[in-house]
Amino acid sequence: MLRFPSADSAYRRIRAMVWRKDVFKSIYVRIFFVICVAVLPSFAVLCLYVYEQRGYLTEYSTENAERFVQLAAHDEACFLTTTGKSLKPSSKFPLFLGAICPNSHN
Predict the structure, then answer these.
(1) What pTM does this model have?
(2) Which residues fall within 8 angstroms of residue 97, CB to CB, at 6 or more apart?
(3) How many CA atoms lie within 13 A of 101 on its CB side?
(4) Do residues 54 and 46 make contact, with C-beta atoms less than 8 angstroms apart?
């Protein structure tokens, strides 16, 4: 009759294989751990750098957008002022004074 090992003994054998002391004697395992120890802090610093840069770039783009809106508003104000100044003398023409609209000179 074929006997299967119990689940408890299989678990103990797997656990013993995983936690063996000679696992750490392998050069590949040691290299893997060294790489992990070197990469994890580098990855943490990279994440911190990206987070800081994101904040800086958000602030910078907000300032640029505000500057652009102020520039556009200033240009529009200059355009309206110049248009008003250039149309003011033409409002004195007789054509505008009463021929088209009787109240245009007010």
Answers:
(1) 0.46
(2) 91, 104, 105
(3) 7
(4) no
3-state secondary structure of 93: coil
**Phi, psi (degrees; rounded to nearest 5) at 31:** -60, -40
Calculate mean pLDDT across residues 81-96. 77
The Cα–Cα gap between 81 and 60 comes to 32
Contact predicate 97/104, CB 8 Å: yes
> How far from chain centre, in Å, is Cα 21?
47
Q: What does the alpha-carbon distance between residue 34 and residue 40 come to, in Å, rounded to a whole number?
A: 10
What is the total residue count of the chain? 106
Would you say 105 and 93 are in contact if contact means Cβ atoms under 8 Å apart? Answer: no
Cα–Cα distance between 30 and 33 in angstroms, integer?
A: 5
Tens of pLDDT along 60-72? 999 999 999 999 9
How much is the CA Rg of the chain, to the nearest whole Å? 40
